Amino acid sequence: MDYAIIDYDPSYALQTVTMWRASKEQAIGQPAIHSVEDHVYFLNHILTNSNKVYLAIERSGKQVAGILACNENWVNQLYIHTQHQGKGIGKKLLDLAKQQSDGKLFLYTFEVNKKAQRFYERNGFRIVARGNENEEQLDDIKYAWTR
């Protein structure tokens, strides 16, 4: 399957949120805290205000395969559809965040998400802190990458 990276388009909001929630639940073993409607609002009105948001879309244009929300210093969201993981989409999106950064990026991932930890460490990120200040009340890891 071939993918295109596009700027976020609100016409994909519901599909993006559905994918995002399923991916996150699989990664952390915990259902979403917020309603789908609240999540769509967050995507369309909050996340897009302080981040550049990209979607990985199947070339057919029919399925959202991933989302990246980043700014010059942070990868704030990176989720890949459960059926499209392991196909290089995450790396393609992460490389885009690196290219647009000011040379240093930070991100958080949950400690229970071992797959994400391996992915980020393979892509040059190093642990800089640990904590648990998140609404899921799970331990998390802060990573940093420097060009």
Automatic annotation (TrEMBL):
Keywords: Acyltransferase, Transferase
A Pfam family this chain is assigned to: Acetyltransf_7
Coiled-coil intervals: none
Entry annotated with the keyword Transferase: yes
InterPro entries per the UniProt record, alphabetical: Acyl_CoA_acyltransferase, GNAT_dom, YpeA/RimI_acetyltransf
GO MF annotation, one: acyltransferase activity, transferring groups other than amino-acyl groups
The protein, known as: GNAT family N-acetyltransferase
Organism annotation: Paenibacillus rhizovicinus
